[in-house]
């Protein structure tokens, strides 16, 4: 009988240890599951943020391209107007020179009479 009682005690201890170990494993499983769900939520939030940032990057890129096109257009207009101004100044100088020559001729002609 003692031998059976000792065996029963031993089995009960092993059973208790097994139950304790099982509970510990179950707690760890819950922790890991919870952490996995949190990681999944965080990943979803991060992916949403990445998507929004990619949209912003595309928008900024498009705006930069439009600004560059506008700058090129304005530069082209400026160069054209500068060229026209240079031509007009040159024509004005030529006209002024011609006028001075004509005035000089007119004075010379008046002086001869």
UniProtKB/TrEMBL annotation:
It is found in: Cytoplasm, Myofibril. Residues 1-24, 83-113 are annotated as: Disordered. Signal peptide: none annotated. GO terms for cellular component: myosin complex. Keywords: Coiled coil, Cytoplasm, Motor protein, Muscle protein, Myosin, Thick filament. InterPro entries: Myosin_tail. Residues 1-105 form the Myosin tail domain. Residues 1-17 have a biased composition (Basic and acidic residues). It comes from the Eukaryota. PANTHER family: CINGULIN-LIKE PROTEIN 1-RELATED (PTHR46349), MYOSIN-6-LIKE (PTHR46349:SF6). This is Myosin tail domain-containing protein.
């Amino acid at each position: 009988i003692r031998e059976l009682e000792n065996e029963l005690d031993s089995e009960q201890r092993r059973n208790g240890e097994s139950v304790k170990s099982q509970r510990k494993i179950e707690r760890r499983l819950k922790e890991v599951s919870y952490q996995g769900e949190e990681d999944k939520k965080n990943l979803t939030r991060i992916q949403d943020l990445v998507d929004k940032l990619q949209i912003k990057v595309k928008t900024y890129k498009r705006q930069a391209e439009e600004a560059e096109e506008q700058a090129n257009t304005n530069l082209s207009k400026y160069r054209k107007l500068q060229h026209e101004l240079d031509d007009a100044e040159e024509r004005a100088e030529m006209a002024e020179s011609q006028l001075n020559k004509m005035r000089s001729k007119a004075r010379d002609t008046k002086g001869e009479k």
